[in-house]
Each structure stands twice: as C-alpha cells, then as structure tokens.
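#random but structural
TW: two for the price of one
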Amino acid sequence: MDKKKRIGLIAHDYRKLDLLDWAEFNSDLLKKHELFGTGTTGGLIAKKLDLPVHRFKSGPLGGDLQIGAAIAEGKLDLLIFFWDPLQAQPHDVDVKALLRMAIVYNIPLACDRSSADFLITSPLMDEPYERYLVDYGERLKEEI
C-alpha cells in the first residue's frame, strides 16, 4: 500500500447516516486519500464532504461485487463498511462475498464507528505498508 490509501466506503440504508456522520467528522483525514463507494453511499459522501468519490453501482445492483473485485485486483487498500446487522439484505450473499474478499486479501476492514475510528487514526495510514498475503492455493494443498 502506498502512503495515499484507496478507501472503500459502503453503508446499508439504515447505516448511511452513521457513515456520513463519521465521514464528516473525519473529513480532514479522508481528504488525504482516494475514496471509492457504492452508488448511493458514494454520492452522499461526495456531496456532504465536497470530495471526489469514485462510484460503483448501488450495492444491490452489483456494487458490493464490484468493490470485492477491486479488492481482489489490488485496487483498494481498506474498507469501511457500515453494514446493518439487524436488517435482512436481499443481496446478503454479495455482502458475505465482499467481506470474504477483504479477509482473503488481508485489507483493513471496519464495520462500525469504533473500528473505523481506530483504523483511520492509525499511524500506518500515513505511511507505506506491505500487506502479508496468504497463498490460499498452496495452503489448500497442504495436509493439516
């Protein structure tokens, strides 16, 4: 990861205001980095913070999968995903796949405000960082 991080920002409907409030509070830190978001969330953040946000499709229309693909392709460095644990999502399988990609590719992941606060204020945010990547292809061949 370079010094300037590529940050994915996603929030489910009932968590959008939470993410907007968090992003506004941390706008001075976020403006140092490159921002990405799913359709609606990315648009709301761009408008609220007056910052450029690269936007993917809306989550239910494939945006979660696009973000997951960007993670797999090494185009995102960390993910702030305020998901809603109390509401069933019609695209729940996509959400699970996205979270899996964040773990498989070992990118920092925050799903709530406290974790996002710890992540965004880490000294590692302002310096290059080399992620450790597991070769799952080789690991799956190993006997346990």
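TW: number two ↓
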Amino acid sequence: MKETTATGQNVEDAVNQALQELEAEKENVEIEILDEGKKGIFGLFGAKPAVVRVRLKETPVEQVLSYLRNIIEKMGVSPGLQFEEHDRTLHINVTGENLPVLIGKRGQTLNALQFLTQLAANRYYPHYERVMLNIGNYRERREEALNRLAERLAAQVLRTGRPVKLEPMPSYERKIIHSMLAHHKQVITYSEGNEPKRYVVIDLAKH
C-alpha cells in the first residue's frame, strides 16, 4: 500500500503536502495524525510542525486480491495473481508452484476458494461483481474434459435409451454440458436437485 509521512505548519497543510506527493484526492486516502504540532509564541518560538501519515485506500480489486492471497499463503503456497475486469466480472488466474493443492479433487478446493473470494467481492465492491477464479488454466482443461464427457454420455444415452445423471457440479460447469449438447437433435439436458448437489441429466429427446 502506497503511503507517505508529511509535515506542515498545521494538520491541513501537512495533509495537502502528502496529497501532492501521492497525487491523490482526499477522499481516496486514509489520514493518521501523528502530531498536531504547535504554533509557538508569536508563531515563532517553540513552534512544532504537524506530522501526518497518509496512505492510499485500497481499491475493491486490491482488497479482494489481498484477501485471496492471504488465504492461499495460509495453505502454504506463494501465489502470483493475474487479473482482468470486464462486464462486471473479475477474472483471477493464480500462478506459481504446488498448484494442485489449490485445485483439489475435480476442482473442489478451487471452487471453495472461488466461493470465498466471491463473498469478499460482495463485501468490498459497491456493486455486484462476479468472480471467476482460475488456477494454472485448470478451467480450460476442465471445460475440454466436460465437453468430451458430454459427447460420450450422449452417445451412451442413444445406445441404451436410458437417461444418465452426472455428478453434482457448480452452475458454470453444468452450463458447459448444456451448451455442448444444446444443438444435439437426439438428446436433451436439464438440471435436477438443489445446490450444492444440483446435477445435469442427459435424456432422449421427445419427438
């Protein structure tokens, strides 16, 4: 966090000095008065400058990233965090070593981290901001695996004539299955169950 300590004839003067140095507006900083100073006799003898510490406030994205970094570091991993924002969605990609620890079995740990990070975003952002967390491009590999799974199970449904229930998945993974088979003319997909155990069903299309 960027901060500076400044002095001035009074607190206001010291704060203005700090704002100039930080190139910031007053509403975007936190101000700590270290010493209110003294005017002195006749404004000369015994005068003491005011001293303030001024630091830039963290932006919502900085707060979210700090929160996530703290959790990951407690898991024994030193992360690199890359992010981009568009359409009110914060995309975060975690890089570094020992990433499988953060992914877990079938992405369960990753999904838990994303859920916690979403809660942090709900607290820090003034508006709703969706969080999409990725670790070492796991999401892309998972999407490819789900697309292959959808094709294989659709073929199974056609072969046996019986519906197939997939394992419970988070909503964005269910969406991958639905999208993959949306234009399939012989099978349909729908979701059943309640969160967090909601799952996709692949069935024969009714003609």
